[in-house]
Design goal:
Helices cover about 15% and strands about 35% of the residues.
Length: about 240
């Protein structure tokens, strides 16, 4: 039932052919997919599965599959509630075309990459984050005051700096030897698979991340700090939106 996560190597893939490997109460499992499952703060992808006869099944969410031996790459495609009648027609082994809502995914990619820039602008541990199509929310563990104008100006410089963005892999052992790379307090890098995926923003940031990102910071576009507030005595919440 293991899923090949095509988005790990190419976040710009919008569709792929796949085989149905299982259908259960969680949803539809495929042998490979371009759909990103909810995790690491990033929302799961939506889109559609198209059968060979042209029938389209709307996918309302993508989650990490839960079964014995499941890995972080194993995804389950959650059909929209009104698709129940169509599910009865599906068969294991059937071929489908999996296609994501690209406009929504690309906004995720831009905002997720922007959240990494925030980690460079504000070098504090991250105590929670949420990446949606409309905003990126980060909670920083700090009592230091944060200046909205300075953050927006620095973000603008990094976006316009056209820094290359790429993924690199290190072994589990190398990850254990470099704990300083982990910036998040609530989300730990997946260990036990032999290797860990890092996101490198040239001359800006390097940290473990399994999400989807753009290839260059210039793709992010203009940003603004929509909200800046004191979440707790030791935490500051910052919400980014497209300007």
């Amino acid at each position: 039932m293991t899923t090949k996560a095509l988005f790990r190597d190419d976040a710009y893939l919008t569709q792929c052919d796949a085989l149905i490997t299982a259908i259960d109460e969680q949803g539809i499992h495929l042998d490979q997919t371009v759909f990103y499952p909810l995790g690491g703060g990033q929302a799961g992808d939506t889109g559609a599965l198209t059968l060979e006869d042209g029938t389209r099944i709307a996918i309302a969410d993508t989650r990490k599959a839960k079964f014995e031996g499941a890995t972080p790459d194993d995804a389950v495609h959650v059909p929209a509630p009104e698709q129940e009648a169509l599910l009865a027609r599906l068969r294991v082994g059937e071929r489908v075309r999996a296609e994501i809502d690209w406009a929504r995914r690309y906004r995720h990619m831009r905002l997720h990459t922007a959240s990494h820039l925030m980690c460079a602008v504000l070098p504090y541990p991250v105590d929670g984050c949420s990446i949606t199509a409309d905003y990126a929310r980060l909670d920083f563990a700090t009592v230091e005051p944060i200046e909205r104008d300075r953050v927006e100006a620095r973000l603008g410089d990094l976006v316009e700096g056209s820094h290359a963005v790429a993924t690199v892999w290190i072994t589990d052992d190398e990850m254990q030897q470099r704990p300083e790379l982990v910036r998040t307090m609530s989300v730990k890098p997946p260990m036990g698979l032999g290797r860990v995926r890092l996101l490198r923003i040239e001359d800006v940031d390097l940290q473990p991340c399994g999400g989807t990102h753009v290839r260059n910071t210039s793709e992010i576009g203009a940003l603004r700090v929509a909200k800046l507030e004191k979440k707790s005595a030791r935490t500051r919440r910052l919400v980014l939106e497209f300007a």
